[in-house]
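User: Need the bound-state model for zinc ion:
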Amino acid sequence: EQVIRLEDYRPTDFLIHEVDLLVCLFEGRAEVRAALTVERRPGSPEAASLSLDGDELTLTSLALDGERLPEGSYEVSPEALTLHGLPASGRFTLSIGTTLEPEKNTKLMGLYRTRGVWCTQCEAEGFRRITYFLDRPDVLATYRVRIEAPRAAAPVLLANGNPVESGPLEGGRHFALWHDPHPKPSYLFALVAGDLDVLKDDFTTAGGRKVDLAIYTEKGLSARSVYAMDALKRSMAWDERRFGREYDLDVFNIVAVSDFNMGAMENKGLNVFNHKYVLLDPDTATDGDYAGVETVIAHEYFHNWTGNRITCRDWFQLCLKEGLTVYRDQEFTADERSRAVKRIASVQLLKSQQFPEDQGPLQHPVRPTRYREINNFYTATVYDKGAELVRMIATILGPERFRAGMDLYFERHDGEAATIEDFLLCFEEAGGRSLERFRLWYAQAGTPTLSVRETYADGRLTLSLSQRLARGAAGTGTEPMHMPVRFGLVGSNGADMEAVPRAEGAKAEDGIIHLLEEKGEVVFEGLPERPLVSILRDFSAPVTLDFPQSREDRLALARLDPDAFGRWRALADLVGETLADAGRTGFSPADAAPVLQAVAAGAADEALEPSLRAQMAALPGEGEIARLVGQDVDPGRVHRARIAAMAELGRIGGESFARLLAEGAGEPFSPAPDSVGRRALRNTILAFVSLAAGDASRAERQFAGATNMTDRLAALAVLAHHFPREAATRKALERFHDTYAGDDLVLDKWFMLQASAAHEDALADVERLAAHPAFKLANPNRARALIGGFASANPLAFHRPDGAGYRFVARMLTELDRLNPQTAARLATAFRSWRSLEPGRRELAAQTLRAIAQGKQISRDLKDIVDRSLQ
Ligand code: HT7
Ligand code: ZN
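Assistant: Bound-state model below.
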């Protein structure tokens, strides 16, 4: 099996300057004619052949400057079209004809058809499924695209860039011509043709360019894209304000489709979205969906500069665009909503998704150095840890110098395919600070442990810090890295103390300790009292914190820390440790009481914004608790411990929770942050209170009376998860299904909710759902709802001690793999933490993984994940 290595990177021997594409769409087939303006790169060998990538293509014609190429001057293999004896200098035109069958393309890469709509997905290597090409990100060309299609099936014809011309053709067909003046790599190519509804608007940039905005959806759904349009306009304005980045075409089009492998795609001027991240209204979408739409709309828009104008030299540099763009979308949400709430949500995501990846067999550095299948590297490490690294650069340099570094990056590399080295150099130059110890973060995989010890006597506080990185599955280095550690010293009055530190082996300035070596020490003198040490504020480095701070100090910080993130972290760490203990040895109400009381107090604290109260109230998920348990995890015990803690919390919250529930009932829906926060708080509490009382009636009432999907689904979740056998639950599930039977996005929720319901009959339920007429394995959202809901969100059932949960998932993945390897591979990562299970389950999981690996027709995507999981 071929391994691609960073060290083997070489520029191409040929440049492609222009691409002229004619795409003719017919029922059942597409014909593509590409005219490529090519030139041998000055200095490259005259004898070098040109090897163009191809995948599942049928070559129908081939010409050089209009002359058919003779036999023997080219070869065609399943992966390439290789041309020999091409001109030594000057530009020449290669004309290539191919045919494809979009209707049969279930991989959803290249040109495919979804609900009658033709659309493309080219990242990472999909363009080679449309025509033969140098399908790699460092080959930048301008594109002119003519689409011809039947007008009835496809009145809307879209491609990248600006529209040039359109008109009728014979036989009920028509055409549209598009031109994108910005040189781009092939992975940003897109076209869409279909019968779509549209929502239109416009935006005028700071420089005075009027941009026509349009969001295309399947028929009858455009009223649901109003919020997405609003999010788009806010994103455009924010990028101008915060980063000085303006949009650069006359149109910006978004198309929402039903069948899509990921969330969305940032194709130049023509973003294609999974409709889950566009379509919303209060009756069908939850507050979480609203947040998701806002984030993904912003993320794809921000790629216009970080990804499109400046792209990646090769796929090893993926974090250059993805980590940076996640950082930018996180900052957007922080500015638009609440900084503390957004930071907590990002840290929760990092810990629940990236930490297990970084601590298990799928570990890889933020910039990997080898891969077998690039699609498997769109990971939490590249995206979310990648964003943390950008955040650390901003922390190290401070806001002004960080902005200067970004400005230099945009100025210096606009129109180029860049590397992480290029990026870091901009910050070193503009920031005037060496990032030598920092750049190791990109190369060294794993979550470092930051140990902190404090001693205090006579007004003198000493903080001793040390860092350690264990070598993991990736086998990368373990050198000390530059760790910015934000901190505060909190007095008993709840205010930060002013204290000037002295440091050795570390630097301390502006509330940040810079740990550059393995060990460092910081001393504060003349303190009026022993402070509460609020460490790693803002989660300023993605580390595991080892700080044996007393429970009393942490409970005090959870009440007093003037930094909202610090309050949450102190409490969340205590809750995590308490539940990890319970997951090892069983839940003890007496041991947990002080911590759960603090949780209830956080939930009730009216000085905090509602979303933050909801975050203070939420308990970590079972996956996160299992990670904290560490070794020999029994997922059944973890589940029982968490449920017991929820019920106990409901008892402790008592009257105060009942009041919160009663006060909010009937609040009208609004997507504004405070309203969202109040719903989140009430719905978190609803589960606690219902469990404490062993009574489903509150949830039943909420379900029946809900005026929005957030409250309706939260109530249904309480019923399905905690009262699975009650007749009321069955009736509610049926009613939900019947009400929304024609709505795919809501039906996904119905599948997901049941797949993730932890109870003894869960596997039988999921098997039944897999045979439900509305279950479609070929639709990624539906497959993710059922298989992902079960394998990743239902640890109790997935990890059944008899291994039947594993075997069910293996069967489904093997079937899915034949249709859509990329989605199958992604879902298979649910097995990634199998080594930390107790021995019985560990062996069964390993057996299942080995059985998948031995499957006769296994794809490269799935095999790569399974092999690496087993290594
Ligand atoms: N850059 C996009 C990644 C993506 C993708 C990758 C592989 C296969 C299908 C895909 N669809 C989208 C999304 C993003 O990060 O913005
Ligand atoms: Zn992205």
